[in-house]
Amino acid sequence: MGSMFRSEEVALVQLFLPTAAAYTCVSQLGELGLVEFRDLNASVSAFQRRFVVDVRRCEELEKTFSELALGPRTPGKLPRGGASRAWSERKSPRHLEETDRLAQELRDVRGNQQALRAQWHQLQLHSAVLGQGHSPPSVATHTDGPSERTPLLQAPGGPHQDLRVNFVAGAVEPHKAAALERLLWRACRGFLIASFRETEQQLEDPVTGEPATWMTFLISYWGGQIGQKIRKITDCFHCHVFPFAEEEAARHAALQQLQQQSQELVLGETERFLSQVLGRVQRLLPPWQVQIRKMKAVYLALNQCSVSSTHRCLIAEAWCATRDLPTLQQALQDSSSEAGVSAVVHCIPCRDMPPTLIRTNRFTASFQGIVDAYGVGRYQEVNPAPYTIITFPFLFAVMFGDVGHGLLMFLFALAMVLAENQPAVKSAQNEIWRTFFGGRYLLLLMGLFSVYTGFIYNECFSRATAIFPSGWSVAAMANQSGWSDAFLAQHQLLALDPNVTGVFLGPYPFGIDPVWSLAVNHLSFLNSFKMKMSIILGVTHMTFGVVLGVFNHVHFGQWHRLLLETLPELVFLLGLFGYLVFLVVYKWLSFTAASAATAPSILILPGPREPRGALTPAPPSQEVVQSTLVVLALATVPVLLLGTPLFLRRRHQRRQSSRRRQPLDEDKAGLLGQPNVSVASQNCDEEKAGCLGDQEEEEFVLSEVFMHQAIHTIEFCLGCISNTASYLRLWALSLAHAQLSEVLWAMVMRVGLGLGGEMGVEAVVLVPVFAAFAVMTVAILLVMEGLSAFLHALRLHWVEFQNKFYSGSGYKLSPFTFAVEDE
């Protein structure tokens, strides 16, 4: 079979890589992504492996690259480096030297820029302090009366002390200004004058580059002790303190000097040079980052290899698909051609279960993801994904059947499919959008199948459409029944009798007749139809799952399971529920409209003593058939429970006895001088077939096998009943979707269409009504109901379908590839 229906054959290969070409060979394997390496040094610490020094060097380079990546401050998309290959061992020292040199140059330029920015910021703050218009207070020699500001006008020692006033000027952050002023007043007991003003222009922060407002202050005080307190307090608040002259002319001269120093700064040239360095970093950094990650991945893979006894080659073990072995051999030969010694590949036997490899494309990836979410299949197990491509959208559509809703979903998915190659769509980071985009083909089929089932239900936004002429004629019923005006006035409900000539003209060509949407028993008719349809689909789906198990038993050579498991399962399932489906179809085909009144109930049949009469037209042998099927179904339970354990026990005993006789045969052959050809060939065949069966035989425990089979029997027998009932969710969800659509139409659109008035007024009213109807249709019926139907279809596939044949106990093949690094 193809790889989609069953996982590909995977072999365990042993690679002999020459030491000189090992790096090149593994790098080429990473580019191809063909093999999954096995760790042959699992017992060795990561710090004691052969290439740990190279791994640390790559980590140091990654740190350097991270430092370089912090350089660009302007947002922009960096160029991709997906096509870059890993650095070779010869070129890595040169790249390392170039990287260190570029990093050191960037550190120097960035340090100079930060120093110049800090200096420029200090000059701007100093200019703001001098230009804010702070005027020193004049010292008074006397006062006219007591005042709370009197201590500020005289020196602390009295009027005969030195009246020289000192100044402290600077800038502080706005949120610290109030606390600074309060603390200065309390610490100096009021022997100062403090003036705080906000800068007129915002200044750029030298670290963050954000514009910020500063508070400039001027403090006038007397005495050296108070000055020391003020300077300590300003230091605690991280204030920028600048010299402040008392004379205005000196301050004006200092301001001009500051402006001249600001002009002399080479900040613009430094930033231009830094931009050039950053441009070079932006050009070289993306491919370097990809290359160093690839280089580190290569050394980590080499750490999983063992060294030969001669230290001339590395030995690696890897899983590889059988179809990729020629490509693997050719790639290793091309990579090791320069070393003079070609790498060698050969297959080796293994006791472990190989990994599962199923190749997918953009169409099958979403369906395979549904299966893998339940569990990765065992090696060479039947893959449910190809069948899920049809059954999953169909079961979803049975619950979501509506032409309008399905068409909206189909168009949405079609738009994503048509735009899938656009970079903006593929690179979107929104998680919800990526979820929808990843399942675009699944949504496409779900919408398409929903349109199909909507035509069968004859529902388009809960409205029936008359595509073909109806098969019922009201005029013929009125003409032949003699409906008078008095009869019509007394009977609000009129029944159409299909037995009257000309009333029922024949079945509707496709789907349900639109006349049923006008009938009061519309819901009863649909309930009967959808309930029986759900049972038929459920039994068919489960039977198909049991049949798929046959391919597993045949492929793995477990022929006994065909007779001891598959056959009893089919008899039990079809004898009970398959016969129920047969009765439903038989009743549909055997009874016409004329004999519909005498059709029996499938679930309620009369007892043996009850008269048959007209209600039981079934043949007399029906009770015998039913009883026989029930007895057969019950008889399969002990076969299903005991058959496999007893067979495995007998086979195990037979093989144990043959193994006891094997040494005796070898001894006889040695005494006669003849080789035991049959035994040797048998061992060769066993090694060629693998050792999984031998491992199972060696670990055979009857109690464990019996317990496992008992669980399987109980689960299957009870599951046939519960799973069949579980498929009734198809009926329930379909009914809920139809009723929600009907309620939404009746409460929104019908109200809007029923509003009377002029044509222009009615059109204005319908615009918001239709907008509300569209929003609620998308939010409730498409999103909420679609998610509900999706989850129920998922459960039907996981629990009711896949557990009949799919174990999901395997693990994926994770090849060593650089695809992640490229992304």
UniProtKB/TrEMBL annotation:
Bilayer topology term: Multi-pass membrane protein
A cellular component annotation (GO) from this entry: vacuolar proton-transporting V-type ATPase, V0 domain
InterPro entries, alphabetized: V-ATPase_116kDa_su (IPR002490), V-type_ATPase_116kDa_su_euka (IPR026028)
Listed GO MF terms: ATPase binding; proton-transporting ATPase activity, rotational mechanism
Basic and acidic residues composition-biased segments: 87-98
Any Pfam family matching the protein: V_ATPase_I
Keyword Heme carried by entry: no
GO biological process, one term: vacuolar acidification
TM spans (from-to): 394-419, 440-457, 533-554, 566-586, 629-648, 730-749, 769-794
Region Disordered: start-end pairs: 72-98, 131-159
Entry coiled-coil feature ranges: none
Keyword 4Fe-4S: no
Subcellular location, record wording: Membrane
Principal location class: membrane
Keywords: Hydrogen ion transport, Ion transport, Membrane, Transmembrane, Transmembrane helix, Transport
Family statement: Belongs to the V-ATPase 116 kDa subunit family.
Functional description taken from the UniProt entry: Essential component of the vacuolar proton pump (V-ATPase), a multimeric enzyme that catalyzes the translocation of protons across the membranes. Required for assembly and activity of the V-ATPase.
Protein name: V-type proton ATPase subunit a
